[in-house]
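[agent] plan:
  1. take the single chain provided in the ticket
  2. run structure prediction with default settings
  3. attach structure tokens to the ticket
  4. add a short note for the reviewer (M.T.)
[agent] executing step 1
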Amino acid sequence: MQIFGQQDDRFRYITCGMEFFVIIGVFVAGGWGLDAWLGTFPLFMLVGLALGFAGALYRLILQVKPPADTSENQSQNKNGND
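[agent] step 2 finished; step 3 output follows
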């Protein structure tokens, strides 16, 4: 059933989007907490935003990128050994 495969892809991308914003939110909240504790507003919040964005972008790229085929798997496929 192709419909189920399409739904799985939709849920996969929805999960990627939610993770993206949650990761950024956690880092911003942590930075805000550090700023409140140390009285350095908005220094650590901005650092948390930058680190959260970089981490979320890295995670998104890893999830969306198709898995790489190793050379061993490629040589087996060429020889007809599945």
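[agent] step 4 note for reviewer: The mean pLDDT is 85.
[agent] ticket updated
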